Amino acid sequence: MGKEIFLKWLRQMYLIRHFEETVERLFEENHIWGTTHLYIGQEAIAVGVCEALKQGDLITSTHRGHGHAIAKGVSSKALLAELMGRETGCCRGRGGTQHLADFKIGFLGTNGITGGGIPIATGAALGLKLQRKENVVVCFFGDGAVNQGVFHESLNMAGLWKLPVVYVCENNFYAMSLPIKKAIPVSDIYLRAKSYGIEGIKIDGNNILEVFYNTKKAVERARAGGGATLIEAITYRWRGHSRSDQRVYRTSAEEKNWEARCPIFMFTRYLYQNKLITPEEEKKIKESVEKEIIEAIDFSLSSPFPSVDTLKEGLFS
Description:
By secondary structure, this protein is an alpha/beta fold. It has helices spanning 3-28, 43-50, 66-72, 76-83, 117-130, 149-161, 208-223, 252-259, 263-273, 279-302, and strands at residues 58-60, 137-142, 165-171, 174-175, 178-179, 199-204, 229-234.
């Protein structure tokens, strides 16, 4: 891995962080309606995982999916326009935050149902295997999804049929306000993989290098016919579950402790320690990200809303 790749990763994490902070502000200014679930604090997982994929590989996402979309290649302009309900959005303003998708780049979509992407990813992996394609599917979900029936059913089928799928559980310790220790009787989620005859591993989700290299191994195993893997990536969401969450169920000390383990800060420190970045290069990255976000805002605000006459277009039923 060379310096150029590492700087790309850093920019991707900065882009996701700045994008989400912008979405938060635009909500307050009433440019975006409904709800949203911000990905701030978990950037290393989306970037590290998606950087381990090849063209033609697929991913499914969650309700907290903006970071996944950007890391997979959805443009910030198309993404922000979609959140604003504009015709130029990646789903023509019809999907919003809970139903983002871009099939052209293998982004099968966000999902408002807890664990809803798990059976979709499993089915997509079965389709790839039946078509004898060498591509794989990555399925993102949170710790709150691992007690859903579709989690167990899907992983059981993936183990039975050796499907080319990597399940990535972003364990941020809370399903809405429910702490994981009150929902799961085992100490580690990844241990459940043994029940389905698949590989299981626990990693530091805030360490992009650890995320990338472990995902790469799992993806290569799946691509070679070795079957599925369950990755438990430990991380923390800095904001509330959604816009209205006041976070009364956790302490400020806990939040500050995790903010000190910021994935962007940790990776930047690594780059400086290994002389892989200069202050001028970091400044240039930040400026390019700010410029991209400003352009995305201008593009979205100037884009039209969908015409009422076209609202039935693209419906499946």
